Input
Amino acid sequence: MTRLNKEAGKTLSHPKLRHPPSGGGTSVRNRWEATPISFAQRLGSTSSSRITSSIQILVLTLCVSAALLGQEESGSPDGTRAGQIQAERLEKAANLIPEELTPAERNLTTVKNTAERLFQKGTVHMRVGGLPSGSGFGIGPVMELSNSTDAVRAELSAVGSVTRYYRVTAGLTFPKFGTRSLAVSLQTSHADAPSLNYYGSGPNSQKGNRTDYRLEDTTGELSLCWAPLRRHLIMKAEGGEVLINVGPGIRNDITSTEKRYGPHEARGIDVQTNFIRGSSSIELDARDSVGDPHNGAHLALQYQHYWDLKRHRYSFARTWADLQLYLPIFNRKRVIALRGRADFTHPDRNQVLPFYLQPLLGEAADFRGFRPYRYRDNNVLLFNAEHRWEVSSGFDVALFADSGRVFERARQISLSHLKNSAGFGFRFKNREAVVLRIDTGFSREGWQTWVRFGNVF
Output
């Protein structure tokens, strides 16, 4: 037993415990050695601690009981915590409430749904764009028909603008001609562009020498398209007739081309001809998306030949190449888009290239710091670079740079003396593609703003 302190009533410190020496055979009574305390203190301390412990145990028991009762009342199948979690999940799934859109998001959704119904769906819908640069806003109806097995498709469309540009097209397509990968189509079209810019040929043409001319063309063409790997590998062969007429431009504030440039500077301005045109092309596509790519590459190669049917003066061959690369930065929100295009022509022996079929810089709104059709010659090089940043769903911001040059002979090819421009743009998209873009480009000749449907590349 513990010895009592001889000095009863003396206040002592709390017991200090220490481990007994190692070794076996020690009884429970001798495992710890207590510092002597008074009997009264020991009795009071023991009673107080027992009361406190009893109260704590009682409170803990009540809490556990309440928790268990709560589990049973929650309706869980087995009364366990896992069952409770499963029951809560089922209850939440049964009472899901759609996320409420902001007023701006509701308006954008309404516009998007309306546009899809108007421009993309139905047998008869509307089409925007598809006219040359400088035509203004083009819009018109499209009628598309197909049989129940989609073995035959027919299309009739007409697009026009307030500046009197228009294009009418009719086509018949057999998308599964004997095999799912082969398609055959017949297409005819007539287009009228009453005011196209012409500044003269060559890299030294002047901005102040702007003129305009009218170009009408009627085409009828047969096309064979083989896509053994769907869109990733496409090969085409096309052939048909092209009827061309060139005349005075319609703008009163610009000199008509034939009044400033003679037939030696603008070859073919005085007499026109018709052509038989044949072409073959191959397309390799490794992009993750066609309408709004964020990763991958695309390569297209084409060879064309024009045979002059009437004058026997304007026959020539044309070779065209286009390479595109898309490099995501960190994630798909930022993309570096790069493009290089080369367009070379080679007149047949004792033949010349008519000015209205010369390759151009700025024809497709891809030379954005200069006016449309600013430079043209027998050969063209063009480079585009863009940094695209997805600010929010459906909206991108882009910074871009364009460089290019024209030259008469293929041996003059060089990366020196490039014409440069840079700027910024905005892209409005749906889930599949860029629907509308607005670009502003700056160059040594000033600045230009472009509003176009679809992406640059």
User: Anything to note?
Assistant: The mean pLDDT is 83.
